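Hi V.,

You were right to ask for the full record rather than a summary. Here it is.
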Amino acid sequence: MMKVLKDKLYLVALAAAAIAGVVGWTQWFAGAPAHSDGAAVTITIPALSAEAKAGQALFEENCMTCHGPHATGSDQGPPLVHRIYEPNHHADISFILAVRNGVRAHHWPFGDMAPVDGVSDKDTLRIILYVRELQRANGIE
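Predicted structure:
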């Protein structure tokens, strides 16, 4: 009798954890609705510093195809102006390593990101500066 009760409690706990996971996942991604223009998010575009403008040019040349204009996402890659990529969750080194080595899919259903050939760490830092200015202008800090 005690084993049956333990098994039932285990199943209830497992079901509760699954429900909590689904609810949490839904809440986490609630900020990334699909838009008819292909962007995953709508953002405010700030006046950029000169350094961020240099990063924007590099972003447009190397990242925009997948991550969309102004890092708003596309049907090929996630938005970088999203709370998932806030500095406390994805530090700058995460972006550098992603460009250098690629990334296995883990937050989004877009598949793996390949390394980006021809983009130096210095260029990546400029791109990061651009993305971080966009994030700050949109309340992601």
